[in-house]
Amino acid sequence: RAAYIGGAVGTATVLAGQMFDIPVSGTMAHSWVMYYKDEFEAFKHYAENYPDGTVLLVDTYDVIGSGIPNAIRVGKRLKGIRIDSGDLAYLSKKIRKMLDDAGLEDCKIVVSNSLDEYTITSILQQGGKIDSFGVGERLITAKSDPVFGAVY
């Protein structure tokens, strides 16, 4: 609630949205991608379930080798992609070119992964092609209070 009052535009926590009338948004989880037999099938089903807000998580396996190519195959229903690992500045530049070359100039690039003001500044200074930053754990958790950062 304090983050929303301070200027955050929404939350990925449904209960916070319900309790404090904060807009709720989010993207798919790695587990969604891993549930299906392959990445494209996961992306296709997600786009069918969320046709007006398809934002695909492209880093479960290989961002450049399969994530973006499979997202491009989903096509016109694609509102955005999200990267949650790796060199976010470098990947965002490569991804922007791939999306633009595929005619998806309006597709947004969202990044997450333990972002804070230092990481965001660094990404921007490196010329990252980011449309939106998903800031979560570093916003709500004190640095002196550790978090469990892991991929399952």
What would you note in describing this structure?
- The chain is an alpha/beta fold and 152 residues long.
- It is built from eight helices and four strands.
- A four-stranded parallel beta sheet has the order 1-2-3-4.
- Helix 7 links the parallel strand 3 and strand 4.
- Helix 5 runs parallel beside helix 6.
- The longest helix is centred in the middle third of the chain and has 14 residues.
- The radius of gyration is 16 Å and the shape is globular.
- The two termini are 28 Å apart.
Q: How is the topology of this model organized?
A:
Elements: H1 2-5, H2 14-20, H3 30-35, H4 39-49, E1 54-57, H5 63-74, E2 78-83, H6 88-101, E3 108-111, H7 117-125, E4 132-133, H8 137-140
Parallel strand pairs: 1-2, 2-3, 3-4
What's this entry about, in short?
With 152 residues, the chain is an alpha/beta fold. The protein has helices spanning 2-5, 14-20, 30-35, 39-49, 63-74, 88-101, 117-125, 137-140; strands at residues 54-57, 78-83, 108-111, 132-133. 44% of the residues lie in helices and 11% in strands.
The shape, in one word, is globular
Distance between the termini: 28 Å
Q: What is the average per-residue confidence, as pLDDT, rounded to a whole number?
A: 88
> Which H/E pattern describes the elements?
HHHHEHEHEHEH
**Major β-sheet profile:** 4 strands, parallel
Computed over alpha carbons, the radius of gyration is 16 Å
